[in-house]
Amino acid sequence: MKNQDPPREYLQSIVNLFNIGNLKQALTDSRLLLEKFPNSIFLCNIIGASNAGLMQFDAAIASYKKALKIKPDYAEAYYNMGIALKEKGDFELAIDSYKKAIEIKPDYIGAYFNMGNILKYVGDLEAAIDSYKMTLEIKPNYAEAYNNIGNVLKDKGDLEAAIDSYNMALKIKPDYAEVYNNIGIILQEKSDKEAAIKSFEMALKIKPDYADAYYNLGNTLKDNGNLVGAVTSYEMALKIQPKSSDAYINMGIALNNMGDLEAAIICYKHTLKIKPDYAEAYYHMGITLKSKGDLGAAMDNYKQALKINPEYAPALSQSHYLASIMSNWAYAKSLEKALSSDLLEGNLSIYGLLSLEDNPSMHLKRATSLVKSQYNLLPLFNARSLLKSNRIKIGYFSSYFRQHPVTMLSVKMLEYSDNEKFETFAFHYGPNTNDEYSLRINAAFDHFINVSEMSDKEIANLALENEIDIAIEFNGFMKDERIGILAHRPAPIQINYLAYPGTMGADFYDYIVADETVIPVDQKNNYSENIIYMPNCYMPQDSSRQISDKPITRQECNLPEDAFVFCCFNNSYKITPKEFDIWMRLLINIDESVLWLTKPNKLAEDNLKAEAKKRGVEAERLIFAPFSKHIEDHLARQKLADLFLDTFNFNAHTTASDALWVGLPVLTKIGKGFAARVASSLLNSLEIPELITTSEKEYEALALDLASNFEKLSLIKKKLVDKRNTAPLFNTEAYTKNLEKAYTKAYVRYLDGLSPKEFKAS
Fold first, then answer.
1. Is 498 left (phi over 0), alpha (psi -120 to 50) or beta?
2. Quick check: is 487 in a domain?
3. Range(s) of the domain holding residue 68
4. Is residue 309 a part of any domain in this protein?
5. Is residue 646 part of a domain?
6. CA-CA distance, 404 to 450, in Å (whole number)?
7. Cα distance between residue 246 and residue 224, in whole Å
8. Coil, helix or strand for 692?
């Protein structure tokens, strides 16, 4: 079939229409001409291109095929058909079409380039690189090919090679804004945030209306702690690209972190208006609403996220945690199967899941998965050589240097610190308060440094500049964590201590401070750290805490005057149906007895009352103690209770310590994991092991026995009072000396060139 094109002036008219974007008219005119010139490959080709531009890909492909019937060696038709097939999602056919174009025209750069793009998209990365390299053989100064090779190398994880390829592109085309943006993304992934920011700014200098560069700059500034700058960048991105759902959601996250919760919610709503099925937006809306105290609305948003993506790990773990906080056990139970899956990975609420199950191997798996997903690519500083000096420099990294259980437990230990042997630094990234404990702990440190406005890397660099010898993780996976600081390895020795009751699952923690109760020999393999075994309880105590001498009566606390008072001042998320079932049976068996609990949120209070009724117990027998601002008053009122009933998977920690300090017996059941053995550690160190049970049956039986036998309970209470002054638990001075021996042993091992290894503190 012989090609027969119309006169040139007719063709030019159609080309002009096509070039100005008037595709419908170009298509109409081409079809009219094709009736007169049915064997015109030009008309078939431009009809195909016009159809493709109008998203009519089947019609476009049909036109290209007609052109190829007229001229089988028409490379441009194969090339254009490849484009249409790619847009249809027929990737294999598109690749075949590009290959046929290349067979006809071996130096067809566009075909090689587009084929590389498809190969990258389908994951055949090596073939994609080969295709781009063919374009460079034909055209060595093809900057776009170097850029795309860099993109493929990035996807392969070869970040250094990717940067090299990007730099080749810049040598050819120094004003290539997209390349600067791509380099910035890699630098961000490598946590070289300062360099990433410069790269994004260079992209914007070249191309001021580059929405993606503003967006990526915002992400880097957000991660770097510059939330105001991040919000400004997101706003600029949205001015250029108003329907960017990702810019809205990330701006919402930044605003949430700034404390502007209402503005964050507005951003999430904009996100969902643009992209209604965006699970992450519902999740972050839930996070913000939870911070506002609107727990019901927060849960609704978590549920919506899971409706969209049932396997969305952050929403699964946060939903379970929130359900536990609300004592919504039925919903928490419905999530347990998914949360117990070995396949569940990524950004989980590690701390919140401690109450899910007493399974140390799963605790390790989840911790390892989170750390790997969040901190695996952080560049590690080279450990400096230590010079033996007069004082060992200890850096504590925490957001809890205020009235918080971590500080309440540790402040006296820090006050006892041997200033001749140790120089202590606080790196504080939490809110500034002026409560009693924040003032005490500030004074206890040699240096108290507020680093809340600094990035993780900046804080790590500051620790390096101060030549910190031992870095102490004083947050762990708890709220406001900044694990990224120690992930940079700012100190030669790094220790997981006190705050989080479990393993961090990361190789940048050398040690964990424990004792032989919380980490028994048969569970050591479930901890990524080397264990420092304290001689008694791992937990420090404040032996100077005062108990108010103000008379507090049962009547003031809404407690019956003559009834037996069981109590549990643990947070609601620690309470599970297992304990509650036992507690309700105790109330049934001990006439007129009551259960005294910490007043939780309103939803949890209502749910707990409802659960009591289900078990045949009047709701009025659950009495809720309001939060007490004054610690000494809280301690004093605990004397009104008769027996503290511990929770199982996640024991009482500070609350158990407080109870024992005032002489209130704590009944516990020892479990397998760290969090399930803390109360047992306290009791062993207090030399009252008879309050430690090994099964639910034994726990219930002993509780019933103690509640029924006044004399037996009185003897235990007397023993508690006697042991307070003689047993190791409350000897803070001796504890401090043992801990400092541990620090010294770890330090000397490093000086001697020895790797971290398990050891006993004394």
1. left
2. yes
3. 8-224
4. no
5. yes
6. 17
7. 18
8. strand
- CA-based Rg of the chain, rounded to a whole angstrom? 33
Residue in 378, 435, 376 with CA at minimum distance from that of residue 411: 435
Give yes or no: residues 208 and 98 share one domain. Answer: yes
Helix extents (H) in 360-495: 360-375, 405-415, 436-444, 456-465, 483-487
As a whole number of angstroms, the distance between CA 475 and CA 430 comes to 11
- Check if the beta carbon of residue 344 is closer than 8 Å to that of residue 313: yes
The dihedral sign for the CA sequence 629, 717, 650, 487: positive
Give the β-pairing of 692-693 and 493-496.
unpaired
* CATH code of 706's domain: 3.40.50.2000
Q: Are residues 112 and 194 in the same domain?
A: yes
| Shared-domain flag, residues 523 and 587 | no
* H or E stretch at 398: strand 392-398
Please give the C-alpha separations between residue 443 and each of 360, 402, 545, in angstroms, as whole numbers: 37, 12, 17
Residues 575 and 527 both lie in one domain:
no
Q: Which residue type, as a one-letter code, is found at position 255?
A: L
pLDDT at 388: 62
**Is residue 455 in a domain?**
yes
Residues of the chain short of pLDDT 50, as ranges, are none
Residue 389 — φ and ψ, nearest 5°?
-125, 180
Residue 486's identity, in one-letter code, is L
CB-count exposure of residue 99 (10 Å: 0-12, 13-18, 19+)? middle
Same-domain check for residues 569 and 526: no
Dist CA 206 CA 217 (whole Å): 15
The pLDDT assigned to 343 comes to 56
Task: Name the 3-class secondary structure at 447.
Answer: strand
d(CA 215, CA 235): 9
Distance CA 750, CA 762 (A): 18
Same domain membership, residue 571 and residue 527 = no
Which residues have CB under 8 Å from 570's CB, separation 6+?
A: 598, 646, 647, 650, 652, 655
Whole-number Å distance between alpha carbons of 737 and 362? 34
**Distance from CA of residue 358 to its chain's centroid?**
21
**Structural domains of the chain, count:** 3
My answer on whether 528 and 591 are in the same domain is no
Going from the C-alpha of 529 to that of each of 458, 463, 470, 538, 690, the distances in angstroms are 25, 22, 15, 15, 31
For the entire predicted model, the pTM comes to 0.87
pLDDT of residue 640: 97
Residues 613 and 679 in one domain: yes
* Residue 328, φ and ψ in degrees, nearest 5: -90, 80
CATH assignment of the domain containing 401: 3.40.50.11380
Q: Which residues are registered as beta bridge partners of 567?
A: 596, 644
The token pair that represents 627 in the structure block: 């939060």
The CATH number for 63's domain is 1.25.40.10
Locate tokens 């805490």: which residue?
A: 545
Question: Which tokens go with 453?
Answer: 């406005």
**Residue 286 near residue 299, CB atoms below 8 Å:** yes
Q: Please name the amino acid found at residue 386.
A: L
